[in-house]
Write a structure and sequence with these properties.
single chain; 10 helices; 5 strands; 10% strand
Length: 242
């Protein structure tokens, strides 16, 4: 029984996670451990709630690090900026078009903010083709110019393949090279990962902005500016505590 309580203490210490030493207990001892843990949790439900809250916070933090630090994404602003905005967008989304001016202003006026762009083509086949084209053009160093041009293309006009090529060419992009890369497995993987990240952050439409880990759904300039101020303040407080 002493071994059982030793194992139980260890399990509690590491958050009830299985340990290698648990493999050395026989079936009866393992059953006793499970019964003791169950009784403890029934009598102390707050412990389980705290553990679940801690787990959720850790998972959320890990997901935030994944979306803000993916080297495959295009980003503007200092890599070590204390505030990061991640935008999930669709090129045929009216609110994404409306958000372009706000984002451009942030990029132009703030040297403490980094903006990360994540393509989330969910509205149409046009959206998907445009997203693939932009991703394929990134190695040519004209992503931002191409992005701005596509976000400025009228929504009441069809964004055909010919229009995408024309806009790319006007943005200084080698269209033939772009087209060769559009169906690559790497681009497919980026788009699939972006969709998975959107699901994780409960982004059901575009645009979705995640500012230092907190989601702002849609383009609400007032809420975005408020969150930006809050994130800036939080970053300064963290810096002051170091």
């Amino acid at each position: 029984m002493a071994r059982v309580f030793t194992a139980l203490s260890l399990a509690c210490f590491v958050g009830f996670a299985p340990t290698a030493s648990a493999q050395s207990f026989n079936a009866q001892e393992q059953a006793e451990i499970r019964a003791i843990v169950r009784e403890y949790l029934v009598r102390n439900p707050d412990v389980l709630r705290e553990a679940l809250d801690s787990l959720e916070a850790r998972v959320t933090a890990e997901r935030w690090q994944q979306i803000r630090n993916d080297p495959r994404d295009f980003a503007l602003g200092p890599a070590n900026a204390p505030v990061t905005i991640v935008e999930f967008y669709d090129y045929r989304c009216a609110y994404c078009h409306a958000a372009l001016e706000w984002l451009s202003d942030v990029v132009r006026t703030r040297n403490d903010v980094r903006v990360v762009f994540k393509e989330l083509p969910i509205l149409s086949a046009e959206s998907m083709e445009a997203a693939r084209a932009v991703l394929a053009s990134r190695p040519q160093g004209r992503y931002w110019q191409f992005h701005q041009a596509l976000m400025s293309f009228p929504l009441n006009r069809e964004l055909t393949s010919a229009e995408i090529d024309r806009i790319a060419r006007q943005s200084g992009i080698d269209v033939a090279r772009m087209r060769r890369g559009m169906e690559s497995t790497e681009i497919t993987a980026i788009l699939e990962d972006n969709r998975a990240h959107a699901v994780n952050f409960q982004i059901s439409g575009t645009p979705g902005f995640v500012i230092n880990g907190e989601l702002i759904s849609g383009f609400d300039e007032t809420r975005l500016n408020a969150r930006l101020r809050e994130a800036t303040r939080e970053a300064r407080e963290r810096q002051a505590q170091r």
